[in-house]
Write a structure and sequence with these properties.
Layout: E1 2-7, E2 16-18, H1 27-40, E3 41-49, E4 59-64, E5 76-81, H2 89-96, E6 102-104, H3 114-123, E7 130-134, E8 139-141, H4 148-154, E9 159-164, H5 175-181, E10 190-199, H6 200-211, H7 222-232, E11 236-239, E12 245-247, E13 267-272, H8 286-305
Parallel strand pairs: 2-12, 5-6, 5-7, 9-11
Antiparallel strand pairs: 1-13, 2-8, 3-4, 7-10, 9-10
Helix pairs in contact: 3-6, 6-7
Length: 312
């Protein structure tokens, strides 16, 4: 079974999706994520997560089974940082498609700003041409991840960040810059640091500069990247058309209006059965034999009890 998610506005098939921000801002995105994991997950197997840490915020999904053989994609290192012992949806979905990911689980109190130092240390040991970073628990990938290197190379730049509809952390200084470089009528025009990919040498330069930059919001890395991006643009770009990365946050609060323009997410979940992987309808198993025998017996008994009914 081949499952893809299509962005109807741009006719693109992003391979990494991200419901950034609070779950109460991503109702559409979480519903899409649940339907996606219903298709790739195993019946009877579940995984749970609450971004807020509250019991009321616990989301439950079908847990996908990893492939027997996990491999790295050619010329690409994939990394995520996780402050929990259990795997996130990024790791689970990557392993389901047979793709390896380096999961760094640092000790101590977690702060998002720690991503910068952790990534610098990780990059010191990377020898691949490209590196992909993605958040652990609020991202997931589709099968199109297998072609991400070729798709990235077609974009013709050394680094791409996810784009988002909301200017966060808000900055009166940076907002005009992002508005000025955005594609005309682009819904997603601000940097989100939850997903990015680039040439390893270039990413090292960006991370080094980020470590030398003060955050906009304490303990947060996204404001740092938003500042640094301005220095590296236009070499570094945002994925305005969701060719690789798709934000799933629609900024619609169920109980109260927000001072943020809501977003229409025009996405389509596509599912196509793969004939090669479909089960043989004539193959016998113990369970199928038991069910078939029970069915056959009921048919015989039905005829005995209704000997004059010729339509059964």
């Amino acid at each position: 079974m081949q499952i893809r998610i299509r962005n109807l506005d741009y006719d693109t098939y992003p391979c990494v999706l991200h419901h950034n921000g609070g779950d109460h801002l991503s109702r559409h995105g979480l519903d899409l994520k649940r339907r996606f994991f219903d298709l790739i997950g195993e019946p009877g197997m579940r995984f749970h997560f609450s971004k807020s840490g509250r019991l009321a915020g616990v989301q439950t999904y079908r847990r996908p089974r990893p492939q027997a053989k996990i491999r790295r994609l050619p010329e690409l290192s994939i990394v995520t940082f996780c402050s929990y012992r259990f795997p996130g949806s990024a790791e689970l979905s990557l392993n389901h498609f047979g793709v390896g990911v380096d999961v760094v689980r640092p000790a101590g109190t977690w702060r998002n700003i720690r991503k910068l130092g952790l990534l610098q240390s990780y990059l010191d040991g990377v020898d691949s041409q490209y590196v992909l970073y993605l958040d652990s628990h609020d991202t997931f990938v589709t099968r199109d991840i297998l072609d991400i290197v070729g798709c990235f190379e077609k974009m013709g730049c050394p680094m791409v960040f996810q784009a988002d509809a909301h200017d966060w952390p808000e900055s009166d200084e940076l907002r005009p810059f992002y508005d000025s470089i955005a594609e005309k009528h682009a819904t997603f025009r601000y940097l989100c640091s939850g997903i990015f990919m680039g040439e390893t040498a270039f990413v090292k330069r960006v991370v080094q500069r980020a470590l030398e930059t003060d955050p906009i919001k304490e303990h947060d890395d996204q404001g740092v990247y938003r500042k640094v991006f301005r220095e590296f643009h236009p070499e570094a770009r945002l994925d305005y058309r969701c060719e690789l990365f798709q934000p799933l946050t629609d900024y619609r609060h169920s109980r109260r209006p927000l001072p943020i323009e809501p977003v229409e997410l025009n996405l389509e979940l596509r599912c196509r059965l793969d004939a090669a992987s479909a089960p043989d309808p004539t193959a016998l198993s113990a369970r199928k034999l038991l069910r078939a025998s029970t069915y056959k017996l009921l048919r015989i008994l039905d005829r005995v009890s209704n000997p004059f009914d010729q339509h059964r």
